[in-house]
Amino acid sequence: MNSSKLFNSSIGKKIVMALTGIFLVVFLVVHCYVNANVFFSDAEENFNRAAHFMGTNLLIRVTEIGLFAGFILHIVQGYKLELQNRSTRKSKYAVTAGNKTSKWYSRSMALLGTLILLFLIIHLAHFWVPSRFGGLTEIEYDGKSYHNLYLEMKNIFAEPWVVIVYVLGCFSLGWHLLHGVQSAAQTMGWTSSNYLPLIKNIGFAFSFIIPLIFALMPIFMHFDWVLNTGALTLLF
Amino acid sequence: MQHYSMNLTLKVWRQKNKNTAGSFETYPVQGISSEMSFLEMIDVLNERLIKEGGDPIAFDHDCREGICGMCSMVIDGRPHGPWKGTTTCQLHMRAFKDGDVITIEPFRANSFPVVKDLMVDRSAFDRVIQAGGYVSVNTGNAVDGNAIPIQKDKADHSFAAAACIGCGACVAACKNASAMLFVSAKISHLALLPQGGPERKQRVVSMITQMDKEGFGSCTNTYACEAECPKEISVLNIARLNREYLGANLSGN
């Protein structure tokens, strides 16, 4: 295999976008699952314990490095492809077909990605930086000290504008995924006449459900809503 | 459908050659029949321009029956005009109504330089085919059609891909000026048949290398190509092309 030739080709570059995209999608599922603790009873303790596990488990920490690499690769390659693709037509059309022949979000992946990137910077500054580099209050469960990340979330989501920014971030994510999931499958060559409807349905469901759950988190925290589920927790 | 005649305003891209800048010229045309093809409508305008001593509008055309792939203009932002699965020559003026303003541009892509007015140089496609879009054996006399058994669905998919007339509408429609639909059709129609088997891996690698060299963009799966293709080539061929290319690279071609 000539890997440099493969990854420098137009298809190879798309494959990098697809594989990193699929990796980031898996991350979203894990992130969504862990954070869903905030919806339920005993949210503070369950969430802080889960966050502690994610922040201290060696395997998770190593994967975190891979996650940052995945993000950077997806972002850098995405912008490079966008610039390259924009340079292929120097003389522009006076009239374009617009939404008659393609979906606006499929043509706007770089814009949606940029909005998600801006959101990501705010989001990391809000939660990841204090978790890793200090600045959180401590809380004790069973005699052991934990970061009170939950309290930090409560404080941050008390601001209405933050909730609005997060919900808008989820909208960008939803549109990005709506094209991204099925596009990744197409790039990997998994689509065929047998599987296309299934892949499109999975892509649609995923891009609706995951951003919706994420968007509900700041809203629940802002309004102090709790789903009273008694003993059910999402701790692992 | 009732025949009617119409007066139209055409905004046509005029460009002397590939080294000069072009611009739009406006031409009113009168008494156009709804039964005319789009190209016949331009013929009417060109006859008038010639009579008036002007320079007729250059455009590509050959068979005028939708199979040669020569006609190549963008009409109101749509390669081959507003009708689905139709070439410009098969687009009829009943698609328009009296008083319409129609904008006519050439296919625009760096890989398709304008030769004159609405004519573009699509020899980039020829070079992609020359890189491997063929079967390099002497086939001798035509053999019996059923001598080589081919699975029915494979034959059907291959035939559907072979319907590609190489007109370049996919490139014209794509926001990235990507040629992936064209290349995928050419790859698919040979990859699905036993005759294409021996050179399958080498073919896909060579054709993609040439496609990239010609400066076409990358596919971002917006599927505008499929929507505009006059032969309605499916984007599932692009998925097959991706599989073929990845497979050829991973297996050490």
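qc> The helical segments of chain B are 38-51, 123-130, 152-162, 169-173, 180-191, 200-213, 224-228, 236-250.
qc> done
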